[in-house]
Structure formats: C-alpha cells, structure tokens
Amino acid sequence: MQFTPQEMKLIERLRKQERRWPRTRWILLGMAAFLLAGYAYIAYMLFSTLDSDTFSPADSALLFALYWPKVLLMTVMAGAFIALAVRDWRGNAHRMLLLRLLDAHQKQTDRDEKVG
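Now predict its structure.
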C-alpha cells in the first residue's frame, strides 16, 4: 500500500503526538492544578465578599454573578484535563495500535520488495 504525501503527513503527526505524550500529560496535570488553585482562590474571595462591609449586597451579587460561572467552567475544564491525563496515562491505545500496524505493514512491504 502506498501512502499519499498528505497521508504521510498525518502519520508523522500521529508519531509526533505519541512521542510528545509523556510530556503533555504532565503539562495537562500542571494546568489542571494551576486552574484549580487559581479559581479556588477566586471562589474564596467571592464568598468572603458576601458578608463584607466594603461591598454592598448588590455589588456582591454582581461580582458573584460575573465570576461564579467562570469558576464553575474552569473547574470543569480542570477536571477534563485530569480525566484526559488519567485515561491516556500510558498513551492512546488507538494511536499506538495504528502506528504498530503501519510499522508492521512497512516491514512486510520492505521484506517483500527484497524477496521479489
């Protein structure tokens, strides 16, 4: 089987993703920790404004309405980063199997060309 240049480019992209995965999983976990820590601090500050003397109840409600959805969204995003890193901790099985099949096919093709 001969691959087109575009297909070869896609195969190389898969190989690059596979090589980079060990570093990427730690980056994902670091980003998740950073998001959780940063937005936990923001959530703490939001809850501290609820019974604060410096903000009126209307101002506290406005701050809460503006920032609480962002806190929830970033918490879900951090959870998704953690889930992705845990799910594919040892690499993506589909990508690994596909690359192994391609390598085996390439070896078989090279062996057939030498014999024939």
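The helical segments are 5-50, 57-87, 93-115.
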